[in-house]
Structures are given as structure tokens and as C-alpha cells.
């Protein structure tokens, strides 16, 4: 039975009926693409083409097109990788963790968040493949039999764990997303005719909405959520192991796994916030993604931002307390060395700015929320840059100390990932329902003002 | 297969359907299946279905994943090509936990989902019987196979109407 506290805000505004939900959300899938969509999609494709040309050049010419040098061997590429993987955490987190916690507000945003996750993970993986320099040898990362070489992959290596973690996360996220889509694809199939009916019919794999199927479906979703929750946490934990298991001062810390996971949730929610704030306006979904949703997202951003802030301070304290000179220097160099500006950019964007959300007025202001979400993601990019580059650029040997300056190759390959991300997201937003209709319908009654009598009857 | 004739009761609300199902089954009418646009909790129980046990599939596939992963890492690192890394153990268990965990989750998730598709006869070429196209939009539909019921069409139709159906249609499949 749905029991809803009377003080809680309604999740869907303006007394939508079940049919209104179907109409509102199927509209953009069934209609012709709008002019706005064509413009933004066109821009994304142009950006993607520009980036793709540079990625091709990166492979053709070699990693020399990047600004790497003999001291800083990892810079923007791995920064971008960790940044995108972090962003890719929000989707499954929203769907899986919030499902386990029975947070009904997730229903309006989980679909778009999961799609975003999948595209973000693809962007992340693209940096690994770029960094390989010779992408046609990517299969070397897989545990293939000895005829391909003399050795197996080393299962002690966090980089191999990463291959397994990211590919498992990607596959399971796709599966979770697709299973969530099936009932909605069936809705579109049943409304369509001709080719669209055939295509969506094949995608809906024969879903009818029978009671037995729904019971099993709910069971599958719950178990998938239970499996995905530790999976989400494991992925960024393993990404942090790439650093934490090394012996570089500034990387070699046990706080990395929880700190990276909190950071991932932080940046992921910020990216979801950005995308949903745009989507709700473009697709006129203000009744589904309400101020309440925005405010709740901002609360999670504040919470995770604060966790990340505490982690920054703890790192500093532990470095001082450890008594290890190299460790201490790494942190002093972070805050006051030649790259001080990146450290303070990170601190301002990630730790200070989300604290503004303690004020309800700011938390519920759409423009401010949008700008803050952008700031958070800038801050999170700098976090990874700070961790990676400032720990490397002054190593044990002062004669090899350098500075890192990005070159066009670094910048353009980063732009490529944006081109891909937005192209993919706009395609998704055109051809698939951006909001989970079936789930929104299931919370309609318990959370809509249209059903006060019914609500009383069921409570 | 001979054509079968179904009575299709259309309801406007999930809770009405839930009560109707209890009512109708109480009167001895056998229900073919109920179709709803979203999961109506308790409907499977009301129809007398057993508790879904997808967890069993997830567990079996998961444990298969665990075993495969352990076998893979143990055989490659400990047996086929052991590497001496600073004189350490050839097969250090803790460093294999990430791989074992990931493969467990991977197999459990995919195994369970494909078991679900298999049990529900779902696939890209599936040709489902759709009793009312609105059942994926805003209507809650009850299908009753007339051949499997002793009561006449008129009687069942009356029972459906009395229990709150807004429409009763006949569908031949």
C-alpha cells in the first residue's frame, strides 16, 4: 500500500492522469524533431566531428600531440577518464540506490540519468583507448590465451581490475536501463503504426504488462538494484586503486576509495541536474521534474560536496600527521606550488560553492542550480587534475621537475568526448522516452493532488 | 490451434482492478491474466500466483560467475604461467577479489535477466497477444478465457460489470 506523509510535496504537478503522462512523454518520440533539437543536435555533431578528427590525428601521430613530458606521463587523458567515470555514477546510483531506499522522486529522473551514465562511461573508455596509442592492440587488456603473446594479463594489477570493473559496470548499466525501458517501449509500440510499430515492437520484445510478468519484472529490478549498488561503489573504488596502490606521494592513501565514490556521486548528480534542467524546459516537462526534484538533487550535491570537502582536509591532516616528508611536500606543493590555482579552483568550486545550497531560496532557484552544477563539474575536473598532475610534476628528483601545459591535442580530445556525449544524449532524447512512464504512473496516485479520496482509501 | 474467445474487462483504476480480481475469483471465474500499464502491487497475489523467485536464478548465475572467476585467476596466475613478483605468493587471494566480484555481478545480472526473458517468452521476434492496446497506456485489463470457464459469456460479462469494469469487450485470438 502506498502510504505518503501529508507534508511531502507532490511529485507530479497539475493533476496529471495516466493518459496525460503517456501523451506528455510520448509526444517528442512520436513527433517530428523540433527546430531547437535540430540546432543543438547539429552543433553536437559538428563538435563530435572536430573531436573525432583530432582523435584520429592522436592515433596517427602518436601521443606526442599531447602536452605530456618525461615527468608528467598522465595528465588530461586520465583526468578526463576519471571525470567521466565519476559522472557515470549518478545514473545507476539514482536508479539502484534510490530504489533500494524507496525514494519515489527518482522516477522522473532515473531514465535520463541512466542514459547519461552509459554515454559518460563510453566517453571515459574512449580516453583509455586513446591513451593506448595503438588502439588496435586494445585486446591485450583482456585475459586471452597465450597464443596472443607470452603471458596472461596480471590479475594483481589495478589497471586490469579497471578493465573488468568498467566493462561490467557498462554492461550491467545498459541492461538495467534497457529493462527499465521495456514497458515504455511497449507503450510506444501500442500507440504506433507502420515501421515505428515494428521497430519499437522488436525493442519491446513482446512486453504485454501481464501481472505475472510485472511481478517478475519488479523482482528482477529489485535484485538488479541490489547487485548494482555494490557495483557502483566498486567501480570508482577500483578507479581510485589505480592511484592508491601506487607509491606516488599524494596518491598512496587509503582514503581514496570513499573519497572518489563521494566525488563521483557529487559530479554525477551535478551533470544530471544540468541535463534535466535543460530537458524539462525543452520538452515542457516542468510538471514531472519539479522544483522539489531540483531541491532534492541540490541537497545530495551539498551532502556529497561536504563529504568531498572533509576528504580534502583529512588528506592534508594525514599527510602532516604521517611524518613522511615526501607526502607532506606533495600536499604543500598542491596548495602553494606552481599549480596552486588548480587546487584553489577545486576547493572553491567543490567545497565552498555547494554550501550556498543551505539556503532554500538558492536551492530552489533554477538558474542558480544550473550554474552551480556547472561549477561543481568544473571543480571535479580540477580535483582529478590536481590529484594527477600536481602529484607527478615534482617527483623525487628535483632535476626532473616540470610544469604541465596542455596542447591542442589534449584540449581537442577532451572536446571530442563532449561532442560524443551530447550527440548521444540528444539522440536518446529524441528516440526514447526521457521519463520512465510506467514508474511515474505508479507514483501518480500516491503523490498527486488529483487523488485525495483514493489516497485516503488506500492508506 | 483453434480460435479461442476471450472476454476483456477494462478498468480505469488499479485498485478497482485489484478488488475486482478478488471478487471475480471468489465467484469461481478463472482469469486468464491481468494486464496493467504499471506494476499494481498485490495483483500477482490476488491472482494466486506464487512469489517470483528470480533471486534463485541470480544466485545460481552469480555463484557460477564466482567459480569461473576464481578458476580463471587461479589457473592463469597460479598454474599456467606463475610470475615471481618479489618472491610473493603466486596466487594472492585479496588481489583477486575485484575480478571475482565483477564477474559474479556480471553473470548474476545477465543470467537473471535472460532467465526472465526466457520465462516470459520475450524476444525481438515475440508476437504477444494484446487484448487491449490501452493496457500499456491508462487502462487495467482483465482477460478471461471463455473456453476454460463453465459460466456463460453473459454471466461473466455481468460479473465483470458488477465488479467495476467500465467496458467489457470480446476478443477472439
UniProtKB/TrEMBL annotation, chain A:
Protein localization: Cell membrane
InterPro entries to which the protein is assigned, alphabetical: NrfD-like
Presence of the UniProt keyword Membrane in the record: yes
Keywords from the named record: Cell membrane, Membrane, Transmembrane, Transmembrane helix
Claim: Ribonucleoprotein is one of the keywords in the record: no
Membrane topology per record: Multi-pass membrane protein
TM region(s), chain numbering: 39-60, 80-101, 113-130, 160-179, 222-239, 259-279, 300-321, 341-359, 366-394, 414-435
Family as reported in the entry's similarity comment: Belongs to the NrfD family.
Protein name: Hydrogenase
Organism: Emticicia aquatica
Automatic annotation (TrEMBL), chain B:
A Pfam family it matches: ActD
Source species, domain of life: Bacteria
Signal peptide interval: none
InterPro entries xref list: ActD (IPR021776)
TM spans (from-to): 55-77, 97-119
Sorted UniProt keywords: Membrane, Transmembrane, Transmembrane helix
Coiled-coil annotated residue ranges, if any: none
PANTHER family: LIPOPROTEIN-RELATED, QUINOL:CYTOCHROME C OXIDOREDUCTASE MEMBRANE PROTEIN
Protein name per Swiss-Prot or TrEMBL: DUF3341 domain-containing protein
Provenance organism: Emticicia aquatica
